[in-house]
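Amino Acid Chain and Its Fold in Token Form
===========================================
Purpose: to set a sequence beside its fold so the mapping can be learned.
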Amino acid sequence: MRKATKKSHLIILVSVLVSLILASCGGAETPAPTAAPTSPPQPTEAPEPTKAPEPTPEPVLIEEDSELAIVAEYMSEQLADWTPTTSADALFDNLNDGDDSNDPFIVSVRSPEHYALGHIPGAYNIPWKSIANPESLAMLPTDQQIVVYCYTGHTGQVAATILRYLGYDAVNLKFGMMGWTDDDEVLVAARYVAAAGYPTETEANELTETYEPPALATGETDAVAIVQARAQEFLADWSPTIAADALFDNLNDGDDSNDPFIVSVRSPEHYALGHVAGAYNIPWKVVANTDNLAMLPTDQQIVAYCYTGHTGQVAATTLGLLGYDVTNLKFGMMGWTDDDEVLATARYAAAAGYPTSTEPAELPDAAAGDGDIVEAAAAYFGEGFKLIAADALFDNLNDGDDSNDPVILDIRSAEDYAVGHVPGAVNIAGGAIFSEATLAALPTDGQVVVYCYTGQTAGQVVGALNTLGYDAYSLKFGMPSWTIAEGASRWNDDMSMDYPTDTEAVEREADNELPTPLGSASEYFGEGFKLITADALFDNLNDGDDSNDPYILDIRSAEDYATGHIPGAANVGGGALFDADTLDDLPTEGQVVVACYSGQTAGQVVSVLNLLGYDAYSLKFGMPSWAILTESGLWRDAVSMGYPTETEAHQLP
């Protein structure tokens, strides 16, 4: 039965094939009728058009010599090898290992009121918003690690980041006092309890748009100086964190126009595990790279976040210093998600319960700072002023032994430096010399020679450098002693005012308190050099108002002082000036004017007096500008050596 069925099937199949063949071979006159379709044919779907490639964003050029470029490159270098936090356990073990020599310098950046409630034993108090102020920095060591702490780790991280950029070896205590003490009254701030449990996404968001970078305008050219100026500008009004609830509500208020630009600074691997919806990924160590900065908006708030709030705060502080409107997600992903796999790090569990102290630790006070400067100044000036003649410098540079060549600093204008300078000299403004970066580039085991137009402002720089421990010399009479450029400013006898002098000695009898010293040399030099002309001094002394008369110091020899001096001037040698018994003769509330032979050694004294907190001025061109009584110290064009100059620019190493 099955065989018959197979045969019948085969016959039917052959018949169908024959019919099809005959139909296809039939003539055109008798076409086979086509059955009408029961429904219209489905339209053929058009092929999907080829998607145009995403346009490559136009590169945003950050000018190479702009403040932004200078400081961004420096920040990237500083972040590359930094470990920004230390744990409470590690700090406690260090403080209790029986070896005080390795103890860090601890700074609480909480408010004075909260510092008084309890602090880590031995900690000093500098509120975080004032951490970059010169008077605060003057109290911090440069040869000891600094551990900063706050309430929960965030503002401590702000302070530690800024100190890192200012050249200090600084780290932040992870979780701040929240990680150290279990006493909530001492902590004051709300302790982390649990995550909000908000959703995350795993789809990566690509950065494609570029923006014009911020424009920094501090007027500084050194990266450290730019950071300090920017910190002082933006810390006062900055809100460094945003809560997870506030960010979530913003993103879900139905108004996209006010949404922030969100940046996860976690690793790419952890970003892929889950991130705040819409967040882009820029790891914190490269946040200051100019390629990444070009992808960040300047007209929209940026919210950075990390794991527990710490490296997000590093990134936010960095971007804030660079001019962006930025804040940090408080507690990072630890505050956002309750998924520990997404968090990818240990969640805060509890405080260590370590002890605190209420006894305040006093930062080094003004008197201690005074003593340090006075001691250094007395040691320097007691040996005499350091000046070098042009011929001595020339012989040194041409003795065939490069190993003893000094570093030469030309503090004239960039324009005059470009016209011609001492071969090998580096051009740098007087104020810029005293940044951390520049001082670090100067040799501590070799000579530094500084020159200017006439030796007077170079003298001010040299006085401060020697007080800081450098072996610095001023080129006597400045650039004209090397060679006289066309139109160069220099002394001539016609400049003397020929004012009356006095021969009666003036006794020094006052007993004044010493002033508060400046926080740093850059604080003085950043404002420009203090010189006063003879006619301005004369007018002051003769305006009928004795209350504004300056205290005048004549630091020439006793013999030349006795020959004649400015009326009212007291005589004291530069070396003898810097002891407490002599300094207390100087007024702390009025001006001090220092006169010498040519303005050069007075300049050295004046810079150190200003570092000590006095309002001191050097008499421009010295005693000859008041009256010529002797040939001592007078410039004559015949002194110029006429040595060759060069125009090639040089940089410090």
